[in-house]
Amino acid sequence: MMTGAAAVAAAGILKSANSSGAAQSHPKTMADDGHVTPAKGVSVRQDFSGIGFLGFDVYGTVVDWRPSVFRAAKPFLERHGIGVDPAAFVDEWRSLYDPATQRIRSGQRPWVKLDVLSRESLEATLSRHGANFGAIPASELADLNATWERLDPWPDSVEGLTLLKKRFAIGTISNGSLAGMMKLARFGGLPWDIITGAEIANNYKPSPQTYLKSVEAAGFRPEQAAMVAAHNGDLAAAKAAGLRTVFVRRPTEYGPNQTVDREPTGDWDVVADSLVEVAHILGA
Fold first, then answer.
1. Roughly what angle, to the nearest 10 degrees, separates helices 178-188 and 114-128?
2. Is 229 helix (H, G, I), strand (E, B) or coil?
3. First vs last Cα of the chain: how many Å apart?
4. What confidence tens digit (pLDDT) does each residue in 83-119 have?
5. Domain ranges of the chain
């Protein structure tokens, strides 16, 4: 699949954006029936001249969480004789995330930070597999839970964010805690201008207030902001809150057999294969 830059070089039909960031044309392909459609991987460029802030989902969009957590979980499980496949363990731990945040969104539970929910989910997953908590030092549990602060960025993330930062203010709109996002940024060299998200709103995405209060904290109105995410549900909620939308394909976020969010399912403003490609599309 061609990246945005490769499509420019090969087709010669993606004109440079004007100084405001508005698009003047976009790459297209001709189908057998003569219908002209945008090339796969490169969206029709939208007018982002009124956009000042790009808010990013982080887990899965900016960082590749699954192999990073696997790398930490495997020796932990082996060391403590917990007989479960490390990849299955990571997926099981992650599967408790949505139900845990939903209980807070629904009002069934008062607000707590994601670090707390993650630790509870870790212990619940270990319990399912017969972990002997009396033999596991608390410091090791804390360190394994802190793996979510040490996740590798996708190969294109730092370059793409650096390019986008030249044209837009950039920041997180994540369900991660503010401290967790700060530590993750320092670990991966993520050049945020601001860190916002669930802790700003005391509620988790896809609650509208998480998007709205995050954008407000960055000093913008919803119509001046865009959400960048690899998850269609995240973008649907952001769009309903008045933000523009950018979908980035991460088809292996959940592993090689991923079935969800491989392709855009909504009418998003921009669709791309990487954050570098997003920067090219938006003229950054």
1. 80
2. strand
3. 21
4. 999 999 999 999 999 999 999 999 999 999 999 999 9
5. 4-62+151-281, 65-149
